[in-house]
Structure to design on (220 residues):
């Protein structure tokens, strides 16, 4: 029962909609109606403030990602419980219980989970994303590439099977969230196959990045 409880607690911690709270309290906006509709760091960076986004990122990595996994490790010696807690935290961030199953993309929370369970993979993924962004200025593309590489990296580093399963599951969760997006964010002008391909590769509904990330409600 304790192990089940820690996984449920991980989901509830992951569900804390800190980006939504910051948008409401600091700018009096619903961040889901701006830019990508993402309840996370990147959208807060563009529509609320850079320092706010940095604080939010730290909260997501440490509190929502790392803490649930650490608690799971204290409760159970089984590595699978820590893996399940990490996945639950990411799922909670992406489909928050407090926001009617809307949320963010889970990338910063994923970073916190990996930091505790396989820091080598976490560091390599961060480096791949940063170098890719410097080359192409497309963070979403390189985050996706990093997550694709994660299961193979876990094998290269000799991690246990539980970590390889974790990395594969995190990739599937990220892909599912990109494809599903949040309700109300779709650009209906394009065909659904094109929209889904844009979502999967670039994490947006349209080809032009600026048109997507700087969107705002009509009344503003």
């Amino acid at each position: 029962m304790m192990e089940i409880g820690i996984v449920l607690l991980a989901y509830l911690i992951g569900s804390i909609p800190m980006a939504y709270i910051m948008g409401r309290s600091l700018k009096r906006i619903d961040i889901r109606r701006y830019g990508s509709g993402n309840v996370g760091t990147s959208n807060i960076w563009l529509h609320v403030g850079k320092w706010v986004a940095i604080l939010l990122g730290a909260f997501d990595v440490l509190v929502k990602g790392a803490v649930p996994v650490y608690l799971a490790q204290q409760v159970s010696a089984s590595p699978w419980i820590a893996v399940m807690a990490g996945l639950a935290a990411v799922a909670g961030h992406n489909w928050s219980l407090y926001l009617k199953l809307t949320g963010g993309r889970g990338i910063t929370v994923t970073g916190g989970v990996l930091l505790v369970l396989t820091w080598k993979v976490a560091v390599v993924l961060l480096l791949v994303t940063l170098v890719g962004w410097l080359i192409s200025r497309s963070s979403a593309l390189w985050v996706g590439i990093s997550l694709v590489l994660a299961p193979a990296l876990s094998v290269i580093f000799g991690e246990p099977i539980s970590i390889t399963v974790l990395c594969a599951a995190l990739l599937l969760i990220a892909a599912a969230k990109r494809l599903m997006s949040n309700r109300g964010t779709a650009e209906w002008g394009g065909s659904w196959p094109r929209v889904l391909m844009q979502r999967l590769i670039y994490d947006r509904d349209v080809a032009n990045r600026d048109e997507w990330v700087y969107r705002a409600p009509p009344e503003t």
The radius of gyration is 17 Å.
